[in-house]
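Mods, move this if it's the wrong board.
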Amino acid sequence: MVRCAGCFLHQSKRVVDIIVNLCGIGMIIYCLWLLKKWNDGFSQMLIVTPLPRPWFIYICLAIGIAVCLTTLYGHVVANCDSSSSLCIYIVSMCSILLLQAGVIVAILFKIDWAWQISKYIDEHYKNFQNFLNFHLIMCRSVSVVVLVGQVILSVFRIRLFVFTSILMQPSYLFKL
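Not the wrong board. Structure tokens:
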């Protein structure tokens, strides 16, 4: 019975990894599209001063890439039955999550991007400014939702680690 539960946990972890990986791929595609719109929108304007860098787009893109790489790594670790490799993965994943949370707060929430964008856009391009402000809110929301999904996945992996290291020991199986 314990082995069936372990197999179910491993299979469900793989499914969740694939879903999170698809979210990361969608995030990358969205950010590349948004970067194209940023470049197209500013190329139509006659601006003499240098443009600000779209760090909110770059950060969202980097988070999407990090999500894809960590879930692919997690999918590889899911095929290992070693609890030590799962422990190393959990520690590295928690470190990456803390780094992602810090970058999201520092870049997406501490900088007033609406004011930064409004400095460069005059009254003639209000539609483009509204477009950018809407997608700034979308980048913030998507980044936070994906970060919460990764935290939930990490909690799931920690539960799997506890299950495989404690419950799958031969001495515990004989007590059942």
